[in-house]
Amino acid sequence: MNLWGMTSQLLKRVVVSLLLSHGLWIVGQAQPHTAQNELNQQLFPGAKLPPRYRFVFPYPFQEHTILTPDQVKLSGLLFKAKATRGVILYLHGSNNALNVWGKLAPTYTHLQYDVLMLDYRGYGKSGGKITSEAQLHQDMQTVYDYLKRMYAENKIIILGHSMGTGLAAGLAAKNHPKQLILQAPYYTISDWVHHLVPSVDTTQIRYKLPTYQFVQQTTSPILLIHGDADQAIYPGSSLKLKTYLKPTDQLVILKGEGHTELVNNKAYIKVLRSFLR
């Protein structure tokens, strides 16, 4: 069962239905604002949990509430390793909330890293809603600053998965984390949409998230991981990003791996362990 994100077929259906329905995203049509709002909703659809929802995991964790400058409360879960070497800030994909993503925490705590997982606005127990790319980047910086009050910056690793990769790269570009890990990254949002539906005009898409620019601005070591069978975000995205990596950065293509089951791949764990040592 696919718990961690959309299947490639569903992704394509969403994009096609939103971008082609009634010609909303074809140049010259009259309702771009409506289409932008619908596309925003599908890029970050949210997955709300009740305010009093009680997280339950068979391993230790702490709930954290992080207040943004505009007084919105963001929900985070901190999973602690038995003997910590640092902390991973995990920025998840577009679907589900921390009640689901938290199931991945042992993958990283077993490697002796604490993990702070964040729900974006409109996800889980986080308040507010996502309205702009600038707002997203500001929220990520707020969370990063919060984390720096608990850990030295040279102990912080930023990890983004799928939709979270552009946010992770943007955050690393403006700070000095120990490392940056991008799992199934896109080149830009427009490039991703164009690959799914080549006939669609993407010039008016509100969210740019130019990962290729962010990696050029990042001084920290970078690891890109992509499955060669990923049908949601095509692996060519990582191959294009490789052009902008530093000589010491790494790209690992996992043979036969798709978009959502990386944590079950022994080669993935081996790559992580080597990079994080």
From TrEMBL:
InterPro entries: AB_hydrolase_fold (IPR029058), Hydrolase_4 (IPR022742). It comes from the Bacteria. Coiled coil: none annotated. Residues 84-192 form the Serine aminopeptidase S33 domain. Pfam families: Hydrolase_4. This is Serine aminopeptidase S33 domain-containing protein. It comes from Spirosoma endophyticum.
